[in-house]
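Section handout, structural biology tutorial.
Before the tutorial, make sure you can parse a SMILES string by hand: atoms, branches in parentheses, ring closures as digits. In the record below the ligand is zinc ion, and the chain has 412 residues. In the tutorial you will relate the predicted structure tokens back to the input. Do not try to memorize them.
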Amino acid sequence: MNMVGQQRKDHVAFLPARKAWRFACLALLVSLLLVVATPVLVRAESGISVLKSKAEADFPLKLTFSLSAGSNVDITEVRLRYMVDQVSFARVISETFIELKPAPEVDVSWTWDMRKTGGLPTGAGLKYWWVIKDAAGNKLETPPLQFQFDDDRYTWRHLTQGKVTIYWYRGDESFARELMEAAQDALIKLALDTGAVLEKPVKLYIYANSQDMRGAMIFPQEWTGGVAFTRFNTIAIGISTSQVTWGKGAIIHELAHQVIHQFTLNPFSGLPVWLDEGLATYSEGPNESYRALVQKAANEDRLISVRSLSSPFSAYAEQSYLSYAESRSLIEFLLTYYGQAKMLRLLTAFREGSTYDQALQQVYGFDMDGLYKLWRDSISKQTSRLPGIPLAAFAFAGAAGLLLGIGLAVRR
Ligand SMILES: [Zn+2]
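Predicted structure of the complex:
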């Protein structure tokens, strides 16, 4: 059973609208055949021999495994087994029976068509091996071979600091260093806001633009600017050298997802989307247009409830944008009025597998409906007290100043 498609969870960052439409009409026809041959010669006492075994990647669409094997009697059965390197609570081994006509020497292959299963991110690793049987009842299981599904359309350079490695191919080293600094600052700020820290190394693939990045994806959406493959501890973002400011925001957003997912990982339940996206969006820093959007929706009595925001956001742009804005505002509300220690307790409750309502109730004493009411009241109070200049803005400015001070202190 292949679990890759089901287990992959993507998070996306929006492109600036002007950039997004520019790429909408571009067809992604880039495909490069990578051939990574792994010659092995295994002769078992049984009499079954492996003459050739290899995996070939047609990134990002396909992965073809092929085998030549022989025996002194007919080979009757060949099975391919593979295991993708990803964060999982179960050891998932996929197995495929290969169709063959029994013969003393067989050449077989099987193609993993990722258009049917969902793809693997750049740099994903897997192990594969063969189980071969012959007519005399002999069985040979080959040793596992490691394969890396690299995006070899580009020549990648890399830069590592702490648990973050940036891979990039366009722009000089100062470009990568600037992005790395943003990533490191984001980790400090996130630890201050939530107490959560990066536990496992993260690979950050910086494509030269969104078009290049979408060439690495099976079903790219035209507005996708960045993706966090949280089960693979991998992030892919398209950032041109002229787009560094946007790029830093996208890195901060996706890195926040990665930290939160590593911290809350458990086999029982996931996170409510408003918490996940809210923390990622909040990490990016103040956002005046999001704030205005929430105020406007509150004034027009069309805020989306916290319960609704716990499920995946609307596919409609306007509702989706409001969902991100509200999620950010909810995090700001929780951090401003209840502080970091409770946020850490909330994330810990999710790590222990609590349901959405249970986790909130346990830490704050209210459930999702209670949170919605309190937060909505705070928004309307801000509107009536200081039209156009909400109280939370001051609170946030103060918090941001404090964070900056602490952040600088830590960096020294
Ligand atoms: Zn996100």
